[in-house]
Design goal:
single chain; alpha/beta; Rossmann fold; Tyrosyl-Transfer RNA Synthetase; seven-stranded mixed β-sheet; 11 strands; 13% strand; binds tryptophan
């Protein structure tokens, strides 16, 4: 592999990511052909979900109205922000297409790879993640939400899930782990195998039997998919349908298009529980601007929407109207639209969304019980 100035692994993401290089390094496919319904979501239409493995299988089952599962997982740390929302939007979308939803809270992984307070982690999973998913439209029907440490209250199901992780271990080699992950600890190995079981166990007889599964994730999760895909095809006891996956670009942090939203720095993200005042301050003070140093200069030379975080948030989430987005882009480039105006527009959009969302969160709290436990 050529020397890169960026690093993308499940446990470390750094540098300026070149997504074309990432596609070739990982052996992904660019996501080009999508069933029409996917155009509803700006994330798909505008290429923020940018790559895939075996997506055609999912496109086909959607077209043929056949059964499929969408499976993904979350590490419950910190506040639920736009980065998490990008995954949530896809979950809700797949559920609306008829997918059965499997959602894993990666508490075992969190324990193995960081040093969390387990009680707080549990609360974050419910209070931040699940509550926001519900407020964003997740329905309890056809949704199996679980913790890795407590798969199910039904013994047979729980046993099947944990046994699968062990069975997968039996079919993996240490060299394979080293080739995929580089340096790896026993805790990380266990996490990778449990995640493989997360992704595959819906196909067991205790769950759905063999079924196409789509795993929408951030690009950093691909090593886990490679491992799970490889091992699954070696197992004779079950005939697993190969996993499908799609990859989301990293949602930029406020400080620049090449930064990430980091839960340890509250000025790097906007949380779905932020107040209108906080949103205003964060955008005005911290959102990196592609505008010029002075109004005169900006009017003359125009701004650069590609590096402008406010413009990028409009593109990714808050301006679904393609014509309007194009006009904003053109006006910004020509200098007709100032940074302050662009930011005002975004602030209005975010705050009107959050106003509705935060009301929906109150309702969502009442529904939490319907999601836990199966
Ligand atoms: N490793 C994922 C993360 O860090 C969480 C996760 C656990 C997951 N199990 C999964 C993601 C299964 C996708 C599918 O966020």
């Amino acid at each position: 592999m050529k020397k890169r100035t960026f690093k993308v692994t499940p446990w470390e993401v750094s540098g300026k990511i070149d997504y074309d290089n990432l596609i070739s390094d990982f052996g992904l496919r660019p996501l080009k052909f999508l069933p029409k319904v996917f155009n509803k979501l700006p994330l798909f239409r505008r290429g923020i979900v940018f790559a895939h493995r075996d997506f055609k299988r999912i496109a086909d089952v959607i077209e043929d109205k056949k059964k499929f599962v969408m499976m993904t997982g979350l590490m419950p740390f910190g506040k639920f922000h736009f980065g998490h929302m990008a995954v949530a939007n896809q979950i809700v979308f797949y559920q609306s297409l008829g997918a059965k939803i499997y959602l894993a809270v990666a508490d075992v992984e969190a324990y193995n790879t960081r040093n969390p307070d387990m009680k707080e982690l549990r609360e974050t999973a419910i209070e931040e993640y699940l509550t926001n998913y519900i407020a964003l439209g997740l329905k309890p029907n056809n949704c199996d939400f679980y913790f890795q440490s407590q798969r199910s209250k039904h013994g047979k199901k729980a046993n099947a899930y944990y046994s699968l992780a062990n069975l997968l271990a039996r079919h993996a080699t240490f060299n394979e782990f080293k080739a995929i992950y580089g340096e790896i600890s026993p805790g990380k190995m266990i996490s990778a195998l449990l995640q493989a079981s997360d992704m595959l166990h819906a196909q067991l007889p205790e769950f759905e039997n063999p079924v196409p599964i789509i795993v929408p994730v951030g690009a950093d999760q691909d090593p886990h998919l490679r491992l799970a895909r490889d091992i699954s095809q070696r197992i004779k006891l079950y005939k697993f349908i190969q996993l499908s996956s799609t990859y989301l670009k990293f949602i930029p942090g406020l400080k620049g298009v090449n930064t990430k939203m980091s839960s340890s720095d509250s000025n790097s993200y906007i949380a779905l529980t932020d107040s209108p005042e906080t949103v205003t301050t964060k955008i005005k003070k911290h959102a990196f601007s592609g505008g010029r140093g002075s109004v005169t200069e900006h009017r003359k030379l125009g701004g650069n929407p590609d590096v402008d975080v406010s413009f990028q948030y409009l593109r990714m989430f808050f301006e679904p109207n393609d014509k309007k987005l194009k006009k904003i882009e053109d006006d910004y480039k020509s200098g007709a639209l100032l940074t302050s105006e662009l930011k005002e527009y975004l602030i209005k959009k975010i705050n009107s969304f959050l106003d509705k969302h935060q009301k929906a969160r109150k309702d969502a709290r009442k529904k939490l019980k319907k999601f836990i436990y199966h």
